[in-house]
Amino acid sequence: MNNSHMASEKLLQAMRFVNEAKRAYEEGDNFGVVIRAYQAVQRLSQFLLNLYGFYVADNSPLRLFLVPDTSETVRAFKAKLVDLERRLHFSYMVEESSLINSVNIRGSEVKSLVDLLGGLVDEAYKIYDEFHN
Fold it and tell me: Tens of pLDDT along the chain (133 residues)?
């Protein structure tokens, strides 16, 4: 399996998580949005790492330092992923603790989060296309 194929699989998985986040938002499930958003960010990070031939055991966007800044688009995309992961980490980890279903995110933040995720997937597709040109 080559880099491009693995990257496209991760991109497809990220898109699925974004769609699930949208559905959770429509159902009023803020916690579901946070979980799916966190998973989408992890898959988008894996997408970029795989695209450039890096395979790491964890899903942390902080590993994106391995990816070269081949363009301003890639540099900005990496920065957005790292920033979003940091913002989501607390809410995600609170859920993983004993405070089950205690999400520290407001409805207005959830809507902007869902919109941001959709934009990140669009950016990832552009990066994927540029990589192959």
Answer: 578 899 999 999 999 999 999 999 999 888 889 889 999 999 999 999 999 999 877 767 778 888 988 899 999 999 999 999 888 877 666 555 445 555 556 667 888 889 999 999 999 999 999 998 8
The DSSP code sequence of 60-124 is: -GGGGGGS---SHHHHHHHHHHHHHHHHHHHHHHHHHTTSTT-----HHHHHHHHHHHHHHHHHH
Token pair in block for residue 86: 């940091």
Q: What pTM value is reported for the model?
A: 0.87
Cα–Cα dist 79/106, whole Å: 23
10 Å Cβ neighbour count for 106? 10
